[in-house]
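Recall the central idea of this unit: under ordinary conditions, the amino acid sequence of a chain determines the structure it adopts. In this exercise we apply that idea directly, starting from the sequence alone.
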Amino acid sequence: MRSFVDSHCHVGEAEYDADRAEVMARARAAGVRQFVVTAAGGTLETNRRALELAEREPDCWAVIGVHPHDAKLVDEALIERIRAWARLPRVVGIGETGLDYHYDHSPRERQLAEFRRFAALAREASLPLVVHSRAAADDTLRVLREERVEAGVMHCFTYGPEVARQAVDLGLYVSFSGIVTFRNAGDVREAARRVPLERLLLETDCPYLAPEPKRGGRNEPARVADVALGLAAAIARPVDEVAERTTENARRLFRLPAD
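Accordingly, the structure predicted from this sequence is:
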């Protein structure tokens, strides 16, 4: 059976409270060997949920931080708590952080300030940075350069090949979600073709972005296998190779153990 790492999933969130055990069981049956459980939202509770799942399940690890939508909610107490949690052995990254100029749920100046602060925290903790970027490519790349981010991933990549090239040139990984299977995502597939195999990751970003033909429904980690099929088709490589290489890459970036 093929093995996968879901390098970005939100299975700690309330959307799975009713059936999380069944969701995780389906994922394991589909070949998911490791889950990188990412916090989102601007509260300590969201981060605590990711941590508790990582501490409870031996195949789960946590990424902690605040989504750019909630940058306006960040305060010093939250930053200090995340700084302390970043030292825990089940924490493997800082994020997701970054910029979202599509929705602008937080003022752009505040998004930029908190993005820089989390980048510095990741550097301080020697952890990779998990970057969310939507409609904000130029500012995202500028901050990454200025903050000297050398370990990290552009998660749920939505841009074209030039942004992918610049991200790779900065030393980042590029992660593809169910978007790579969407009919209108030609630029994303072209970007995937330009990313070296050793820099590719797979993710579901569940509960969001279910791949075709499940688009629109609640996503779950088992569907990382469908993302792998879509990515393999986009880059014209065997799906077994995509599974193997993306698993190796995720383990290298997040320092996950082998099976």
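The domain at 4-254 is CATH 3.20.20.140 (TIM Barrel).
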